[in-house]
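TASK: fixed-backbone design
INPUT:
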């Protein structure tokens, strides 16, 4: 459940950062918002799999051991 909350918070923060960056013309904030959205995708994956990801799975998520 905590992973879902983190995923939603990070995705909301990413969307808000995109809006603020677009309205104020801040390209650095736009790049940081992409990081927040990617991080939220990782948390959604943790929630979907109901397990914590190892460092190997974070680096190479398309490969499985």
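OUTPUT:
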């Amino acid at each position: 459940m905590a992973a879902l909350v983190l995923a939603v918070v990070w995705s909301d923060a990413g969307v808000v950062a995109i809006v603020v960056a677009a309205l104020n013309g801040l390209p650095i904030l736009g790049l940081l918002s992409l990081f927040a959205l990617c991080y939220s995708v990782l948390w959604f994956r943790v929630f979907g799999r109901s397990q914590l990801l190892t460092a190997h799975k974070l680096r190479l998520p398309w490969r499985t051991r």
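COMMENT: Residues 2-24 form the longest helix (23 residues).
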